[in-house]
Amino acid sequence: MRIKCKNRKHLIDAAMGRVESDLCIANAKIVNVFNGQIYDGSVYITDGFINHVAFENDTLEAKETYDAKGKYLIPGIIDSHVHIESSMMTPYNFAKAVIPWGTTTVITDPHEIGNVLGIDGVTYMHNSSEGLPMRQFLDIPSSVPAVKGMENANATFYKEEIAKLAKLDRTIGLAEVMDYLAVIDGEEWMMDVIETALDNDLYLQGHAPFLSGKALSAYLIGGANTDHESRDSNEAYEKFRYGMRIDARDSSMCKNIPAILKGIEGTRYYDNLSFCTDDREADDILKNGHMNDVLNVAIQCGMDPIDVIKCATFNAAREANIDKLGAIAPGYVADILLMPTLDKIDPTEVFFEGKLVAKDHELQVEIKGGDFKEEQTNSVTLKDDLSTDDFTIKAPIENGTVKVNVMAFDTKDGSATHLETVELEVKNYQLCLQEGMMYVAVCNRYGLNNIALHVVKDFGTVHGALGSTVSHDSHNLTIVYDTPENALKCALNIKEARGGMSAVIDGETVYTLSLPLAGLMSLKEAKDLSKESELMKEANRKLGLDYMENPILRIVTLALPVIPDVKMSDMGLIEVNKKEFIPLFAE
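and the corresponding structure tokens:
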């Protein structure tokens, strides 16, 4: 994709000095991502594009001059993969939060809202980000639901939906192809989706956790050649060796950069390395930053700052096939950051298309929302007659012991899980759970009324109920609980809030976070949402998640059936790599 200039001849005339440039950013230390060097010079800008980079005395006339006062000048930062919905903010409120930190372009995958509101949801993300002083490109959700036939979302995307969404102005790619088994097995519907994307000149974004060897080769041949799911050094090394583009992730939940950089240490070329946030919450952004914070993690790991900058600018643009973005050079978009040092990426000035949009972490432009029907739509439709019976598991025997297939978490803070078969005592048809075990329910919230119940181990809560409609990716209502009474109270709280999260202990509500936009997002700005998020985190800690830095995200991947080995859906427990359901009671 090429970002088109307004008037090419006018830009040429400005480069030659036949007309005045709009702006000159003078007295800067210019970071060149092509050769890795730093030059003293000035950057001339016309119609939002760089028309000349002047070194030494090669000057032009400009209508306005901005004195950089010797600061370093770098391209605007690009987030190569993000779900704006995971910030729990609307696209325009997200922009208010991240622009002051130097993020001028994001490549967003709206598959969260796509699962809830279908094509209308994706179109909303496009339209509500129109005209912002940052660039929000869209990748079309490739897997809605995440695994077809294993869960129920409120939409299904096939080649017809891909073709329709490809016509949106800022659509550039097919978003993370999560159903990697469908690619490896060559399932017809997935082949149709991939070919439709390629026919519309879209790049293919990947999602390939733990894939290796022949399976990785097959996946790459399928067309997706990026990955943000690399979690350890060996995985990153193999994917890098195969020519896969790695989007090293530092989200509010997954911190993979140190392991990835260790895995590719000593690599001669970093051309296939970029950075992403994937999922960052509002309060995390406010307190720690956005992509600038991700870059600082890489710098702290020992990576050269200029290499880091290139990865987060030029490499990211090239990965997504975006031309004339991510460098300080003639003909490139004038997204520019100024900062006093390269040891810590902390911009004091942010320019978007040649206009100052943020200074000293404060916006310099006004950003307004709009009137969108999706912001008023109630997307939570649960059973009208919910009762404790809906959250009660009845054992097949009155008394004795039974073998139960349990979903067990590998670690206290990760999303990977495994299957354990455990013998549990039964009294009066009720399971007697062992220490570390809780019940889990996934309730369809799109009017199907089905509720799947199971047992989870080492989730982290020790009592009460924790529920959320932020439950990747179908975003049905997931509840982890000790008693049916607490689960029912939690479900009713979330239903009344039109979606969100709720914590209940002993029948009393600790806190409910309302997320009325698709059950995923608030309509509030980051500063207000951050306060509410902190209250929700405190509620989570009271349930037992007091060991986690960010407990609010613990529940969100429990029902994501593309993360091995077992996950829940509203249809039951799933063995991810086999795409098979696992019964609650073992034979």
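(Above: one complete record from the training split.) The radius of gyration is 25 Å.
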